[in-house]
Request: fold
Amino acid sequence: MAGEQLPPISANATSAPVAAAAPSAVDPLHPLRGVRLTDILPLVMIALISSITPIAIRAAGKSIPPVLGGTVRFSFAGLALLAALHLRGRLRKIWGRDLLGIFALGILIVPINQFAIWQGTAWANASHSAIMYASTPVVVTLVSCFIGWEKFSSRVFIAALLAMFGVAVILLQTGLRLSPTFFKGDLLLLGAALSWALYLVGSKPLTRRYGSLNVQCWTFLTGAAVCVPFVLPGAVQLHWGAVTNASWMGLAYLSIMVSGVNYFLFNFSLARQPPSRVTIFSNAAYPLTVLWESLLQGEAPGLWFLGGAAMIFSGVFFTLFHRTPAAGQSHLHG
Reply:
């Protein structure tokens, strides 16, 4: 949920060399055929952890500035990956022109994406954050088609139309019935989802050369390092004693459970199961987010929102089983 869960993928996409040996895409009508309990448990954990991500962002953002919070969580994630890769002897240095690519991806995923997802969730809500991010597989596929990594087809066209109409319905609802601030929040969340999708597509060439964990490690650390000079004055001036317990818990959840545990579970699952199955379960996080927020607030989502969400998920379904050479990557909320 970039932005705050990790990466959606096309049904036959690979996230990294570690995922390249995964089984072929599953039958969409029988996605659990031949699945063992030990395969399901990590997937269920991914969905549950990811579903709480937008709620944790909203809680953390009440007391902690957006880019500062994003810098802290991605610094933790990058350092954790650095240590893990070093201990396993798999840490790789980035060379030559690839350094520029890592720098650009770091800018995209930390300052740009994190400001958009944190501020957008603060102005809108966790449910809208989740549903905007649910459109990521469609955007990834469209960009992949545009640059020639996938073949454009009628299925891609239908998926794009459904996703765009779904987003338009949600934006129309917020623009007509809710506050201007809420509408601006939805626009930021849409921008967060777009930046996350661009990160996924842009990181694929580097992932082929260095592996997904190395690319994540260096982009996270680079993006966080770029932010430090800008967030340091605010961090010094921030009255840390006024940061609420809920904000601390939200930041801890994002740094440990999302950036640590969930990223590990995602790569672990991709190495052993079809990417399409992992994506199906990760997409289950989005309706769960809506459910959790409805229970917390005691307020059911409106029909316009549910209708727009249904269109987006329909577009995602078409995208997941678009069987052409894929360019996507794994998809957890960034």
